[in-house]
Amino acid sequence: MTRATARRRVIRLRGDERAARPDALAAEEPLEIRIGGEPLTVTMRTPGHDFDLVAGFLVGEGLLHRREQLAGLRYCAGTDAEGQNTYNVVDAGLRDADATPLSAHRTLLTTSACGLCGRDTVDAVRTHVRFRPADDPLTVAPEVLYRLPQTLRAAQRTFESTGGLHAAGLFTATGELLCAREDVGRHNAVDKVIGWALREDLLPLTGHLLLVSGRASFELTQKAALAGLPLLAAVSAPSSLAVDLAEELGLTLVGFLRGEGANVYTRADRVTTG
Question: Which helix (H) or strand (E) holds 10?
């Protein structure tokens, strides 16, 4: 077992039969993210690729958009009852970082109880976006899109043993998988992919595609836009605010990508015909 999985004994029922057996579970542990020693947030995640997760989270908050802004990442001394390092605290050093994180704006909005919060939230993201997905000349063939879920599923090694993880995959326009990450949180899986891309100095992700294994929420669309991605695809449905944001920023949003079918909600001109 790695830290991404844990073993538990279960009673397995099959019809009238029952038997005790070990079962693999997806691990879930807290990760505290600090900036320059100051706590920023705590997220529940599957351990593994933590530095990618933190880097991607900071991109998604609008704090980073270039590799050189990330001065360093290190584990801090978070310990358990036996005094062992839990590796559940990561401190990021930043240089020339951008302004207030988007989460601070969202927190303010949730307390205002106003009818314009959706519009204001979209506007807040637009002001933080450093790249322009609308100008990206990407085109992709439908048959390339149809292959993406199977390719990503083949890379989900922990899912095969637990059945309990979300996944995100970064692809080229021809369907080559560059990076796949898994996590109990779909937002974390996306952060891990985008953080990997930042640390590889690939931002903006012009000409690339992002596939997520669940639905396309507003937050995932935000993260894609802040990384400069021109296309976000999901195997399930998008939310209305996700569509609004994608339309505002000129990002192609694809939902219900299953088998040889999909719904294209925005910028369908990027998906070729014939």
Answer: strand 5-14
